Amino acid sequence: MREKMLCIVCAFLCMILAGCSQRVDNQENYPVLRMMSMGNEPAQMETIYRQLDALTEAELGVDVRISFYPWEDEIETIRKLVNSNSFDIYVYGAPFDSEELAHRGAFLNMEPYLETVPELVEFYSAQGIELLGRESVYSVPRIWNSTGYGFFYREDLRRKWGLEPVTDFQSLECYLYKAREEYSENAPINDKRFFTSLLELIAGGRYYCLDYGMGICWETGELVRLLDTPEYRTALETAVKWYRDGVISQDILYLQNNNTMSTLEMMKEDKAAVEFCNHFSAICSNYVLALSEVNPEWELGWLDYNLLNNSCYDTYFTGDGQIGLAVDSKCRYPEAAMAFLEKIHTDSRYYNLLSYGVEGIHYQQNEDGTISYENIPAENIFRGQIGLEQDTMMLTPQYPGSWDAVYRDVQERFAYMRELNGESAIASFSVVSTAYPDSQEAMTAYTDSRIRRMLETGTMNDIEDGIGRFREELESAGYDVFFDAVKKEWEQFQMIRGGIR
Amino acid sequence: MNKIVRNILSGLTFRKKIYLVWLMAGVVPMVLVITAFINRVMVLVEYQNRYALEKNFEQSCQAIEDKAENMEEIARFLLADGKVQEAFRRQNAGMDDFDYLEQYENVEETRRIFVDSSSVDEIVFYLDPALPMVGKSSGNKYRNLDILEQEAWCYSMLTDGEYAKWGIIMNDPAGFMADYFCYVHVIQDSEDFGSVTGFVCIGLRLDALEKLLVPVLEEQYLCLVTADGTVVSGTSHEEAFPMQDQETYYYLSKEIDSTGIMLVSAIPRSVLKRQTIKSIAGLSAALLVLLGIVSLIYGKMSNRLTERIDHLAAVCRKSENGVLEKVEVNGDKDEVSVLCRAYNQMTDKIQELLKEQYRVGEEVKDAQLKALQAQINPHFLYNTLEMVSWMAAREDKKSVQSIVRNLSRYYKSVLNKGKDEINIRDEISMSIAYMEIQSCRFKGKIQFSSETDETIPNISVPKLILQPLLENAIFHGIQKKPEGRGSIWLRAYRQGEKYVLEVSDNGAGFRTGAGIEADTAQGSRYGLTNIRRRIDLFWESQAEMKVESTPGIGTSVYLLIPDISDRKETV
User: Fold this and answer.
1) pTM above 0.90, yes or no
2) Edge-to-edge, what's the strand order for the sheet holding A274-279?
3) Looking at residue A22, what DSSP letter applies?
4) ipTM for the whole predicted complex goes beyond 0.95
5) What is the mean pLDDT of residues A344-355?
6) Which residues from B are below 8 Å from A256, CB to CB?
7) Contacts of A255 in chain B (CB under 8 A)
8) DSSP symbols for A252-307
9) Which of B383, B401, B524, B558 has the fewest CB atoms nearer than 10 Å to its CB?
10) Quick check: A60 and A340 in contact, CB under 8 A?
11) Which of B105, B136, B174 is nearest residue A251 as measured by Cβ atoms?
């Protein structure tokens, strides 16, 4: 009895003391890895964090928090974030001058940490990418097992307008002109990056287009300046024509951001009927589900530029200068960051959480193993991008309406072509020359050229004059020497790897 | 009143009295103190809640004012930039794109730096459409001034001479700035200050602004409201906003600098009250639980005390019915234990006394029986009567007369109206009468003499305490001598604080401790033990009997009687 009373009193005193004391968060505080990604943050992100924390805290001893940045001027955004050491892990979803930033010490050299992440090394090795044996590894390249850019349009409108199926440049152009006519308020092309897609569309059959105005001829395997090719001129003429005819927005020269998200908004409001330059993955995750929710009756179509030009290969991966995942050089927990990268590449629990979210909240798992988004609110759908697209763990989505058939068709054709073409010999070639010390100046001259911008937006009528002035500009910036250096490197590379096809 | 209280209290058990004391001295004061304490805490909590609301309001206000100031500064810096001014000159209208592109890039770079490096979310220019950079794409940040035609609040700045205003642009077809709290500043043509080429609009996202408006309480309205009462940002803005209802709401409002936008905080007073009660509910519950637990502990502890008292009371009640039980005593050293122990000792004593009483009662009965037998003493009477008969046959009239007179004196004192006690002189007189008879009987073989101190008061003594001693002296002293002759002395005198009755003889004597006390006289059957008990009972063990005897010399028996005043004399 006495013991019982003592227990009661002790319990009460504990209760009182607990009540008197300040609230103590009994959760252990773990270091936080900050990760940036492009896209929109899904609703109920906290449910993802809850599951992710359970994994990372137990296995890596850290928490991971992701900040999503919209697809506007993503290159500028990433550059700004990297410059300010804002995050521990960067996912750069678009090519930018990451190599230059890496050389300036912005990113962690992963080489000393590779032995701590054997599964990650093995994963890339299985893809034909050897991370070991290099002096420096500033990023892990992003595996790109998806087809590239293409033409996204409304199939129901095409039929309504009585147009031929969109299967080539001509039929595509017909659709653009009709869209221009029907949706006169907004020009069909309003993204300042459209020329890349236009060039791929026109020149992709002959050249593999690289950065900084270079391309590799499929037939000869020769590195060429696209500026000198007739296809480039044709593309410029097309741009001028389209601009003149209002297919391209009249303020294209003065646009500040990529108009990806505003185009989606316009399509949702039925004020636009086409997205000219976006890649299949973004279309699937961002556009299709959002538009299906607005109007399930809309039929959506896709013309894939890579498929059109037969430029699909087995395992496309990015070089240091392109897209991938990097760790900030000021990251306080590099081992944990590397371990996290290893997990998201090799562990399906991590992969699913960061690619699809939480089952039942952000997606639905079907009995056949596919996933779907039926009854999932649009705001819950994971539309971020953490740089993961791979065959091994990717879940097959089941899209609403007719898009599911489109998706499967594209995937089948993509898989067929990959198998047919095998591994691309140019995949790991970087146009950033290490032999030419002033290559950065030449590259900047190319990217910042106002004449090029005017030419490639169709706002310069006199193409001959423009090309002439552009050449002079590049020459004075040492571009020719830079090009020759890259060409030499390419020839050496080609000698080692063999033919490009 | 006191009588009523006394009556009530007197009817309560000890346990109830203890509880009553706890109730009155513990619970009631504690409840009063807790009530007073809770009341005080309620006042403090209410004050604290109001203070928190006011502080929160001030902080929100300050945060928004800081933002507003920052927006004004950005507009000033932006428009003071020479390259920006150059780009917005009206004379640039119709300029070749290539020539103008550099100016545009300068402006755009500056704009982007401000957007990236400051806390503002957007900077948009509404410009003369003649300027080359002005477009109509939804994403373009350099927009046609005409779009603002329907926004009278800012469009009027083109003509009314004002240079800056705050508001929200709702009518941009692309929805631009509709979700922004805007600072709109006119852009003057740097070549002609009288001419306005457009507006720069510094925007802060309303949802970002809303993040600054963090209500203290869930039910609190914390909103930015325009002059016409439109809620532009903040909590609960879908509901009807309670404007200026001071009765029902605790209401705070302040204009954000000179923006014309009011920050308003309103919370139903009932919620405030409820919040206060909610805040102290836990404390009150804890205090009441504490009181309950203390009462429980007190109850348990007092039970431990009252249980023993109850037990003691129950045992006492049983004792009233003659059942004497012992109280269980634990190792405590408190007063209750002392009481219990005392009670147990008292019980032991009573038991002992009762036993003694019983024993004494038995002895008294026995003594009385023997005394009665002694009183009658049939052998003595038979022998005496035989002697009288024999003397009468001899016609010894004188001796017969003497014997009969002494026999009469003897029996008169022996009977003494049935009383057990007798005054000492009568006892001595009776003893003398007895000895005179015996002297006659033994025909001069026994010499008897008596001496009495006349100063001895006539105190009461148990009846027949000398006669057995004289009888012993005759039959165990003198008679046991071979010649059968001897003397017997009876003396009464004072010795210190005591009176002594002495019976001595020069008979056969005996070794002390050899059993004379246990011996029984054939004639009287009235032994020394009996006399000892009787004097112990009579004088409560203060009297004593001493026996001195030497074989061949004789025996002396002394009765030492205390000088007790109330027994000194009998009436």
Assistant:
1) no
2) A274-279, A149-154, A300-304
3) P
4) no
5) 90
6) 108, 112, 139-141
7) 135, 137, 139-140
8) GGG--S--HHHHHHHHHTTS--EEEEEEHHHIIIIIIHHHHHH-TT--EEEEEHHH
9) B401
10) yes
11) B136
